[in-house]
Design a protein that fits this description.
about 160 residues, mainly alpha, two-stranded antiparallel sheet, 8 helices
Length: about 160
C-alpha cells in the first residue's frame, strides 16, 4: 500500500501497482532466429546436435517438446495415414502424401503418434525427426522418390524416443 494525497488535509491508501516482471523466456532476437530457421534447426536436432549447443537449438527443442507441439505432430502423423488410406481428389487443398510409403509405414507411424502423446519429456532428436517428416516438403512423406523411406525415418524417431 502507498499513500496518495487527495488534497491538503487528507490522504488515501491505494494498493501499490504490481511490479512489472519480465516473462522468463528467450530474447526476442533468439525467437526471431528460431522462427526464420525452424527447418534448419530441426535438421540439426535430427542429426543429433545437442540442444544445449546454441540458444536457438535450445529454444527449438523446448518448442518441439511442448505438450501442444507433441500432440500436433502426433495428429499430423495420424492424418497422413488417414490421407494415404483415402486419397483425395487432385483438386483438394490438402497436401499430397506418398500413399504407398505412408501405408507401408502405417504401423510405425501409429506407434510413433502414441509415443509422442505418452512421453512427457521426449528427446529432441526424435521430435525433430518427426517434425522433418511432417514439415519438410522434401521428406519421404511427400516425396515418393526420396532416398530414405517413411518407415526408416519413423523407426529412427522411435529409436530416438526410446532413449528417453
Amino acid at each position: 500500500m502507498r499513500l496518495v494525497r487527495t488534497d491538503s488535509l487528507h490522504a488515501a491508501a491505494v494498493p501499490a501497482a504490481p511490479e512489472r516482471t519480465r516473462r522468463p523466456g528467450a530474447p526476442f532476437a533468439v525467437r526471431l532466429r528460431v522462427w526464420a530457421g525452424v527447418l534448419e534447426l530441426d535438421r540439426r536436432l535430427a542429426e543429433g546436435v545437442a540442444p544445449t549447443s546454441s540458444p536457438e537449438l535450445a529454444l527449438r527443442a523446448r518448442q518441439l517438446a511442448s505438450r501442444r507441439s507433441r500432440h500436433e505432430l502426433a495428429g499430423a502423423l495420424d492424418a497422413a495415414v488417414h490421407a494415404a488410406r483415402r486419397p483425395s481428389p487432385s483438386f483438394a487443398a490438402t497436401p499430397y502424401v506418398a500413399a504407398g510409403a505412408v501405408l507401408d509405414a502405417a504401423p510405425a507411424l501409429a506407434l510413433l503418434a502414441r509415443e509422442l502423446r505418452a512421453q512427457a519429456e521426449p528427446p529432441a532428436r526424435g521430435l525433430a525427426l518427426v517434425s522433418f517428416l511432417i514439415c519438410d516438403v522434401g521428406s519421404p512423406l511427400y516425396n515418393a522418390r526420396s532416398a530414405v523411406t517413411v518407415r526408416e525415418i519413423a523407426e529412427r524417431a522411435l529409436a530416438a524416443l526410446a532413449r528417453a
